[in-house]
Structures are given as structure tokens and as C-alpha cells.
Amino acid sequence: MAKTDISTKFNPLLGETELDLLSKLCNSVSVSGDEQEVRAIVLEELHEFAAVTKVDAMGNVLVRREGTGTDRVRVMIAAHMDEVGFMIVNDEGDGIFEFRVIGGVDPRQLVGKPVSIGREHIPGVIGAKAIHLTTPEERQQVLKVDQLRIDIGTGSGGKVKVGDRGTFATKLVVLGPSIRSKALDDRLGVFNLIQLVKHAPENVDLLAAFTVQEELGLRGARTAAFAFDPEIGIAMDSTPANDLPHYDGLENTSPNTRLGNGPAIYVMDRGTIGDQRLIRWLVASAEADAIPWQFRQPGLGGTDAGEIHKTRAGVPSVSVSVPQRYLHSAAGLIRIEDELNTLKLIHTALTRLDRTILNPQEKM
Amino acid sequence: MAKQNSLWTILQTLVETPGPSGSEHVIREKVKAEIQGHVDELYTDALGNLIARKGSLKEGGKRIMISAHIDEIGLMVTYVDDNGFARFMPIGGINPLTCLGGRVVFMNGTQGVIGMERLDKGEFPELPKYFIDTGATAKADSKVGVGDVCGFERPLLDLGKRIVAKSMDDRVAAAITVEALKEVKPGVNEIYFVFSVQEEVGIRGAVTAAYGVDPEVGLAVDVTRTGDTPLGVKMEVSLGNGPAIKVRDSSFIADPRVVRWMVNEAKTQEIPYQLEVLEAGGTDGAAIQRARAGVPAGCLSIPCRYIHSPSEMVDRDDVLNSVRLLVGLLGKPVSLG
Prior knowledge:
The complex is a heterodimer of chains A (364) and B (337). With 364 residues, chain A is of the alpha+beta class. Chain A has seven helices and 17 strands. In chain A, the strands form three sheets. An eight-stranded mixed beta sheet of chain A has the order 1-2-12-3-13-16-14-15, sandwiched between helices. In chain A, strands 4-5-8-7-6-9 form a six-stranded antiparallel beta barrel. Chain B is of the alpha+beta class. Chain B contains seven helices and 17 strands. In chain B, a hairpin with a 4-residue loop joins strand 6 and strand 7. In chain B, helix 1 runs antiparallel to helix 3 and helix 5 (256-269) crosses helix 7. Chains A and B meet through loops of A and helix 2, strand 4, strand 5 and helix 4 of B.
């Protein structure tokens, strides 16, 4: 039996221990297809659940935390361990490397950024011609990825190889009520899922999936969901907050989400139409505990729920995200209260969950 | 038993019921009311597919899945501005040219009309230029909010031999499937009639339905485009020339054995038919074909003009012949030789 208490009340905090863990997760280099660094942290954090933990063929970490109540609903919660980044594709000598992006990285975000390459976090920089030498016309152009190089200054001693992955080299910092970091998408989810496993409500079977290759098209979640065969699926992720006022004074009609307004509940994205029963359950749970919440504006983008809900004979699914400014860049920004409220919402919702929620959809 | 409704009454009920993808709860009840008492088993699966079984597997028979989707294209609110205008995104393939002046009805009963920002000369009206006006005078008295769903509102129009409605895609197939379900005597076959959800957003319901049903052969029933309108697409399908037997579309290649089975049945019954090659479009057949370890699958298509507009047109004879073909196919041992 695990040491950690199975709890019905859980008040998440971001104390020193938690912040250390979140920093470690965010500062890792864990680009899609090579998630070993985050996987190692997850396995270490959850070592007391080793007996119910497995790493599947894709590299997903699957933790089966069974409750103690009767007639427990099997709930799969997914958070992805991978992040967007780069892959070295050609060694041109003298510390200069050609690379490609992995996942959705805006080429305009690349120039001038320090990067970390490979398992040893070899430092480098994505450089470009200095402004002194560029023409006004050149400064109007967006440099394409294949025009750019990663320069490690030959500090590696041959440790950077073709196929290595890298990320922006930004480290997590706390900015008053906010956190600035790379890879908050989806290390916040990973962090939250670790907390949920440690503080799992007794009334459900928590099927925790720390997934791989989400950024390349929800690949890990697909096999994880098949293995778990859950009755309900929840993806915990991070979603853009494009909530700054319009520069021209027009009403901002497409913020997606807003910082400080609480967990973002999904109604529809490119991959999933949220199950209406689950959306109502989350909203009711938030209202009952006076947790702020917002609907993410229906739109594009996607989460692991896009694969989970189509698994086997179907899994009612929904997504909840922490709103984040500047997603998929070297420095995203979140409010700590949004992060904690997201964790609080999922936990309290789970404690309220029973099978009647899965009653026929006629009651919608 | 409930009063028997005619095929045309059922069709009118179905096309005039809102049910965009993900919000199929009302249309599902209408279908359920129609088929209750005619089936051996009836249930709704985890994603909301309505699944009806008729018959039990006997020596020489097959487990057959028929799938007609009950969702339709629609709109979802993304933002209500300070003045009460609702911005929206499409649910499924919405052509912006069919939106202006359209009327919509939300699942909560609220109605509205679609308006548009001023365009520059020659500008193509993309969807972000449009908004729904529900008559609200400000955000505070808007009866709809982010995430609310609406369908287009348009009554059925009877033009004699041809009939017109929004959501003929795919309610005409649902009506045909209901009628076939009532008429067919399954004999040795075990037939699962699936009224599937979320087809318009990427063939999702049929994926899980096919996994659950685990059929030995499957057919989608859906509409297909025609090539018979002035300067339209080049396509060998015309309204009124009979049910179309799909050879391929952009989502799957129909199993040639299934195509042959359908063609032979049409010939035996002397039902006019057309072979269909659809260059753009997909159906539940793709999901059935790739379920589990694979399933021979095809599609019975109803020729339809002006698909994904508020005025989709079908031919009455095509509808009746589709019922006959389906009943014939399902009522005897399946030959995929």
C-alpha cells in the first residue's frame, strides 16, 4: 500500500518542494520522441507506486492508481511529457549544425535564441547575420529554418550528434504571481498529474498517462488509452491566452483564454468535441467549490483527448488547460493561481464523480 | 406500438430537427422513437451513437453494420461582443457563401440570423467576417454564450419529384435506414443499424461504433454529389438515376467484393443504380473498413445536389430505390464471392 494518503480534501500549494519539481520538469530537454529526461523525473517522483507503474512500448508512463470505494469509475487522465523543439539533422563541422523543428515552432521565434542540445544540455545559439550587415529588405524577411544554424561554439567535444534533440535554453523563473518558462506546455500537466497520483481520490480508479509525442499528433495517447480501456478520459494541457488588448483599440474577440480567469474547459477543438456530460460536471464542480473557470474559445488546436475519445468502443472525454501567454516559445507566461486552480478543479471533480454521470445521454 | 409514420413524414421530422455534431441528443430521440418496437436490441454507446440490432446470427449469415450519421453541420459560438453579436466557428464543412442571411436555431431554442461585416470590393467573405444576431441588445441580455451550438433553420420544401431541405446530408440516409430497418426480415443475418454521431467533424462516431459492433461486413449510407448541374463538377452521378454504389471517395476505396454484392442485388431486383467515384468527401465506410483487424466495407449513396448548403436536393425515386436496395441486401445471405 502506498504511503501517501488517499484523500478527499486536497489544497494544492506551490511551495519550495513543488516549485523545485516544476522547475526540474520545465528545464528538462524532452522533445517529442526522446522524452527520457522527463520520464525519469516522473518515475522517480512516483517511485512508491512502482508496483502499479509501467512504461509502455511507446515510452508512455502508465500509473494505475486504484481507489478503495465500490463501483469505481475508471478515469484516464493524460498529460504529455514531450515538448516542441529542434532536431539536429546535419553536422557541418566547426560547431555548426543544421536543424529542423519538431512540433509547432514559429520560425519567427528562432533567431537569437540560446538553446540546449541533447541529454547533456550542450549550450548553443541560433544565430543570424548582425543588423550592421543586413539591408532594409533583408530585415523584412522571415528567415526560414533551413537558412538557420545552431552554433555550439565547439564547446561540446563532439557530443552533439545528428538526431539529437534540443530546446530553448530558458530556465523557469517566478515573476511575482506568475511563472515564466519554456515547456509549460505541458509540464504543468505532468506536474499536476504527479500530484493527482499522490493525492488520488478513493472513489475512482485513476489511470494516469504521462504521454509521449503529443506535439507530433497525439501518438502516445492513442496506445495509452487502448491499454487503459478507460470509461472517462481527461486531457490536462496548456492553451494559449491571447488576451492582450488590441493595439488598435478594437475589441479583442479571439483571446482563446485569459490569464487569471481560471482553468480553461474545452467545448470543441480541432480533434475533439467535449462530452457535454463531462463539461457540465466540471462546471458544476468548479461552481460548488468557488473555483474560477472559463471556457476556452472553441477553435483549432488539440489535446490527447482527440485520440482518447476514439479508443475502442468510445470514451467520453474532455480537456482542461492552464491558460498561457506566448505558448510554444522560449518563454511562456502563466499565473500561479490558474495552475493551482486547475489542479484543484480536477481533484474536486474526481471526488464528486460517480457512475450516474455516464447515464444515457438523453438526459443532456 | 406507436403510430406508423411514412418515410416522407419521418424525413421531414429528421431534417427539421437541429443536431450539429456533438449535439445529437434531440435527433437521436426522434430516431429512437421511430424504431422502438422494431428491433431486438437498442442502446446508445459511449460517444452517443444509437445502435439497433435486428436479427441474430444464424448458420450462413453475417453480422452486418449499416451506418447513417445523424449529425449535421452547424455553428458554435466563440465570443459574444459587448453589443450582443455572437461570433462563431464552423462545426463541419461550412461554405461561407451559404451563410449570409441564414437563420439558425440553438439547441436551447434561441433563434438568430447571420449578418456580415462590410467587405472591401472583391473581398471573399471568410467566416470570421460573419456574426449571429440573436436580437440581443447587449452582451448582458444575450441568450447564448461561448460554446453554444446552433443548426441552420430551413423547412423542408416539396418540389414534387424532388425535395429540398437542409441536412439531407445525412438525414435522408437516416430516414432510408429507419425504413429499411422496419421492412427487412433479417433471415440468417444479424444486422446492426448504427445512427452515428460526429461524422461531419471527421468520421468519429463510426470509429467507435464499428469497434463495438465488430461487424463482418459494413455499409455506410450517405449522400453524394452529382455532376448534373450547369457547369458543375464533372461526375458520373445524376439526380434520379438511382442509388449510387460507391467505388471510392477520398476517405476509402470500397471493397470490390462489396461493390459487386451491391451491383448484383440491384440487377436482380431491377433497381436502377449508378457507380460513384467521389473525388472529395468521406463517409463512415472508411471507419468501418479500418475497424479492428479490417472489415469489407462499402457505401450506398443517395445522389444529392447542393450538399452543405441550406437547400440540399434529392429525388424521391432515388430515395425509394435506396430503401429497396438496402432491404434486399440485408434480407438474404451475403455473397462476397
